[in-house]
Amino acid sequence: MTDDVLRQAPLFNGLDETASAALESSMESASLRRGEILFNEGDDGDKLYVVISGKIKLGRTSPDGRENLLAILGPGQMFGELSFFDPGPRSATATAVTDASLKSLGHDALSPVLNEHPDVAKALLNQLAGRLRRTNEVVGDMVFSDVPGRVSKALLDLADRFGREAEDGIYVNHDLTQEELAQLVGASRETVNKALADFASRGWVRLEPRSVVILDLERLQKRAR
Ligand code: CMP
């Protein structure tokens, strides 16, 4: 199971069995309890991580203490590579949203892998480009979209990664509190709750603790546009 999830990560792109096994043996395991901080924004970074199980949130804190979530990552996703490609402090704080297990690779072990395997370098560039594209969209949405539009988008993005077919719709176990959902959308908890309650009253979603069931995907997609 660990192997399967680990090898979905961009880090293993195009590697044959021998190279994959060699890379895997140079990685270390780590586990986190829910709420535990792996590293803080501003720390020195010397490792990148692949999520094996659970969920990790990447967030930033403003000088007055408000939090903004950049991303929620799940199994097979990687983080901690920015401070390798652009040497400098960690650009965000990584915290476990649920109990989580991870594999880590030292930045010093990454250079030889990139030199020997251009496919891995391409996969990491692809991930960086995807994140830049998504970040551009988020910045655009902060200017052009209202809060309900941003909430719909966030729910659809979470459904893409964590959703599974259920009897009456798509069951999305996001594991986020309402406060964390608000931090992900970049709005107050009250406004985000109001948008969610409105979606629920229209029958588009059903709200459950740390989960949501999407009942009307089409309407939610329309609201996200
Ligand atoms: P690093 O700066 O080493 O540590 C924090 C990590 O968060 C960073 O590497 C990236 O892997 C990840 N990260 C930072 N910004 C974003 C973003 N906008 N979207 C997804 N992941 C991000």
TrEMBL record:
Annotated ranges, domain HTH crp-type: 145-218
Gene3D superfamilies: Jelly Rolls, Winged helix-like DNA-binding domain superfamily/Winged helix DNA-binding domain
Gene Ontology BP terms: negative regulation of DNA-templated transcription; positive regulation of DNA-templated transcription
Domain of life: Bacteria
GO CC terms of this entry: cytosol
Keyword Membrane listed: no
Entry-linked PROSITE patterns: CNMP_BINDING_3, HTH_CRP_2
SMART domains named in the record: cNMP (SM00100), HTH_CRP (SM00419)
Keywords, sorted A to Z: Activator, cAMP, cAMP-binding, DNA-binding, Nucleotide-binding, Repressor, Transcription, Transcription regulation
GO molecular function list: cAMP binding; DNA binding; DNA-binding transcription factor activity
Annotated ranges, domain Cyclic nucleotide-binding: 11-131
Name this polypeptide is given: CRP-like cAMP-activated global transcriptional regulator
Organism: Aeromicrobium camelliae
Organismal lineage: Bacteria, Bacillati, Actinomycetota, Actinomycetes, Propionibacteriales
